[in-house]
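Table S2 (text version). Query chain:
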Amino acid sequence: MAMSATELETYLRQAFPDAQIRINDLAGDGDHYSCSIVSEAFKGLNRVKQHQLVYQALQGHMGGKLHALALQTSAP
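Corresponding structure-token output:
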């Protein structure tokens, strides 16, 4: 079962309520997304740490319900 863009955004909003989030379904299959997240939570963190926060927000669904996620993260 794939993850909908709405479900993906729900996980991200719970972890990053202040964020500007843009999600694109790359293949139209609910398995391959690109996502841009701008959040204060990323301030002072390198890109690896930022992406780790995103993966934590997905609560273990990366590699399961969600196959591929191209991330672009930054602080405002």
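Notes on Table S2: Residues 5-74 form a domain with the GMP Synthetase; Chain A, domain 3 fold (CATH 3.30.300.90). The helical segments are 5-15, 47-57.
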